[in-house]
Specification:
Blueprint lengths: L4 E4 L2 E4 L10 E3 L2 E5 L13 E8 L3 E8 L6 E2 L7 E2 L4 E4 L5 H4 L3 E5 L12 E9 L11 H9 L11 H8 L8 E9 L2 E3 L1 H6 L13 E8 L6 E8 L6 E8 L33
Length: 279
């Protein structure tokens, strides 16, 4: 396998996967991944629009926006009568999602979902699972694309369908939920005004009009380094991925017209990496 790296200053990171991907857009201190719109299989209630993270010296903030309420969607199609958010999975290993399973970090923020853990919070040593079968969901990412949702950025920062399949897996069940893990800390939920005070601005990207869920946790709970964050609905009717990194000294915000050099340390093994600019 060929290994590639992207160098930015002293930041060097190499990943053993070849696929086209791009780092998220940096705006007002947050890194954003904006998903393809109208790719929510099942309608607006199953639409994921954006995922954002912010790191400070003390805290990490995570926010997701779309059409799904924090408590999910009540439906007879699910065994428990509800289809909701999966768990946010953070992969620091530099490998694809299935290869990293067992070494993932996870954030459970939806207390009514089908996670294998009972607490909400931050988890390490996470083994993830698919819960699509009990949520009338797509049994693989290929099945989701085959239902008519194959397009660019249908998994956020994964630039193409091929990129998403390479990372998530083509025919395997999509890992979307924590099966087991070790709880390392709690999360706090932020109100809309508190999130805005922290700089969250999904409206800049013309998304975020429906349901936005924002949490905060202590920075010490997660490691330094480049990571891929992935989040799916339990039924795999939509999902999103974000590429970013956590540093000892978080980067300061930069003018929106910059080329996001601070994010280039992510170093995804990519045949091409189109960098988004802010507008």
């Amino acid at each position: 396998m060929n290994y590639f790296a992207v160098f930015t200053g002293s930041l060097v990171c190499s990943f053993g996967i070849a696929y086209a991907a791009q780092a998220g857009t940096f705006h007002r201190g947050w890194t954003y991944s904006i998903d393809a719109l109208d790719d929510g299989s099942g309608g607006p209630a199953y639409e994921v629009e954006g995922l954002a993270v912010k790191e400070t010296g003390e805290n990490v903030y995570v926010s997701v926006t779309g059409g799904t309420a924090l408590t999910g969607v009540d439906t007879d199609n699910a065994e428990d009568g509800n289809i909701g958010w999966g768990d946010l999975l953070l992969n620091f290993t530099g490998t694809d999602l299935n290869s990293a399973n067992g070494e993932l970090w996870g954030i459970r923020f939806a207390a009514t979902n089908d996670s294998g853990v009972s607490d909400v919070g931050v988890f390490r040593h996470v083994t993830a699972q698919s819960v699509a079968a009990v949520n009338n969901g797509h049994n693989s990412l290929t099945a989701y694309y085959g239902a008519g949702y194959g397009r660019d950025h249908t998994l956020g920062d994964m630039a193409t369908e091929a990129a998403a399949l390479a990372y998530v897996g083509a025919e395997t069940p999509v890992l979307s939920s924590i099966s087991t893990g070790t709880l390392v800390g709690t999360i706090d939920f932020l109100s809309e005004s508190e999130a805005a005070q922290a700089g969250l601005d999904f409206a800049h990207f013309d998304v975020g009009d429906e349901q936005t869920h924002t949490v905060r946790f202590n920075r010490s709970l997660v490691p330094n380094g480049s990571f891929i964050a992935s989040l799916f609905l339990e039924c795999v009717n939509d999902g999103i991925a974000l590429l970013s990194n956590f540093q000892d000294q978080p980067a300061q915000d930069v003018p929106e017209s910059s080329n996001l050099w601070g994010l280039m340390g992510l170093g995804l093994l990519a045949s091409r990496i189109p960098w988004r600019k802010g507008t």
